[in-house]
Amino acid sequence: MDKFLIRGGTPLEGQLSISGAKNAALPALAAALLTDKRVVLENIPAVRDIRTMGRLLATLGAEVSYGKGAQSHRVVIEAGDITSREAPYDLVKTMRASSLVLGPLLARFGSARVSVPGGCAIGARPIDLHVKGLEKLGAGIRQEHGYIEAQAPDGGLKGAQIFFSRVTVTGTEDLMMAAVLADGETVLENAAREPEVGDLADLLVKMGAKIEGAGTTTIRIQGVGRLHGARHTIIPDRIEAGTFAVAAAITGGRLLLERCHPGHLMAVIDKLKEAGAGVSLPSPSSIEIEAPRPLKAVNVTTQEYPGFATDMQAQFMALLTQAEGTSIITETIFENRFMHVLELARMGAQISVEGNRAVVMGKSALSGASVLCSDLRASASLVLAGLVAQGETLVDRVYHIDRGYEKIEQRLCSVGAQVERVS
Ligand code: EPZ
User: For the chain, which end, N or C, has fewer CB atoms within 10 Å of the first or last residue's CB respectively?
Assistant: First the structure.
């Protein structure tokens, strides 16, 4: 099991190019199931979760090919010959986003059998809202032996009015994909507004779908008979950009991030500025971050987009351990997303947790220690802390971080960090 050995204390200086967004790429791959024609996706990040989704599509019978060399961020999917409609447990248990095949399989083939994703480190993460929406479209759904068995009525899914009792990103994406081939109009109310939802809608429209309002709380979908192939470039990863922005701030450095979309992380940029960091937008696709002098404590509450992303909470907590003063972090999206607190405390951070609030007392001098990753973003938080800690930090179980960050240690080293991958 790989580990990262990090020697802290070096301010990061230089520039980094941001990868395509994992959380836009995953639904895009699933969307390829909606047509028997070729779908070509560009700017796909080379991360573990993408390979897992690729394996899932191949298990269903799709042909999935990955570009090489200069095209290594291209994935081509041809789902002309789907021989199975089952997403097996051994794949789903490694990646919850596998539930994104539920909608497309049901829409195109009228049936699907998807293992119920278990919980994960950050919470129970049920998919009851996905199921309720599919039932509204006419699907018959039962759950047994740990699988969701979904069956469309003989005439196929029927458009419906669906209200999400709480905002769900992949729930919105799953239902959008189920509705594009349904008979009639579907309206998704209280839909997620994340940029990844909008990117999926852009791909589906290129494939021939009729969708309006993606990116707003109300999405209207007119069902069509069939979809055709398309070529689509995935949007930049706003969470990766935010993570590297924090890396510049926490190490007292200065980074230029390119090939990103600043408009997708305005809440994070605002918080960085409030904490005293220098942030400028030299171009529509770049962000320059200069470390603050000194870093000031700020309060953060995670919210659905366009609010402060829950996927940036752990990274920002690491930063706030270096701020002068007391910061309060409130996590409103997931019920157990403070797994990184105990590991940061082992490095000397002063953090107390009361329910969904973490109180960070700064500035605390962090010292290198052996720490353990529990989930993708908590792992990023520990790496960030290691970059500023005095001495050596050994981060274990970095397969968590490999799920969502491409070659992160190489890229951090390219701007001055001392990070070594050891097996
Ligand atoms: C997506 O997960 C992201 N994953 C997550 O990123 C992200 O943290 C999350 O959205 C919130 O922004 C992908 O896009 C692949 P939700 P998702 O459904 O869709 C509850 C990362 O680090 N809920 O928006 O699974 C749920 O338990 C990952 O890249 C239900 O109760 O999240 C949570 O409390 C981690 N029933 C809240 O809603 C449901 O049917 C929001 O979850 C669905 C969700």
Answer: C
* Cα–Cα distance, 266 to 399 (Å, whole number): 29
Ligand 1 pocket test, pick from 23, 44, 98, 400 with the greatest ligand atom count within 8 Å of Cβ, gives 23
Q: If you measure from the C-alpha of residue 161 to the centroid of ligand 1, how many angstroms do you get, rounded to a whole number? A: 22
Pairing of strands 230-233, 218-222: unpaired
Instruction: Find the 178 Cα to ligand 1 centroid distance in Å.
Output: 18
Q: Alpha-carbon distance 279 to 177, whole Å?
A: 37
* SS3 assignment for 214-266: ECECEEEEECCCCCCCEEEECCECHHHHHHHHHHHHHCCCEEEEECCCHHHHH
Number of neighbouring beta carbons within 10 Å of residue 80: 12
Q: Rounded to an integer, what distance in angstroms lies between the CA atom of residue 11 and that of residue 65? A: 39
28-50 in b/e form (b: 16+ CB < 10 A) is bbbbbbbbbbbbbbebbbbbbbb
For residue 241, count other CB atoms closer than 10 A to its CB: 28
User: For residues 344 and 334, is the Cβ–Cβ distance under 8 A?
Assistant: no
* Identity of residue 237: D
Summarize the confidence of residues 317-344 as an average pLDDT.
97
List pocket residues of ligand 1, CB cut-off 6 Å. 23, 26, 96-97, 123, 125-130, 166, 168-171, 310-311, 333-334, 376-377, 404
Instruction: Please report, rounded to a whole number, the percentage of residues in the chain having pLDDT higher than 90.
Output: 95
Answer yes or no: are the C-beta atoms of 352 and 321 closer than 8 Å. no
CA gap 259, 213 in Å, rounded? 26
In the structure, what pLDDT confidence band is assigned to residue 119 with cuts at 50, 70 and 90? Answer: low
Helix, strand, coil % over all residues of the chain, rounded to 5 = 35, 30, 35
Residues 409 and 23: beta-carbon distance below 8 Å: no
What's the whole-model pTM score?
Answer: 0.97
Token pair for 381: 């938080």
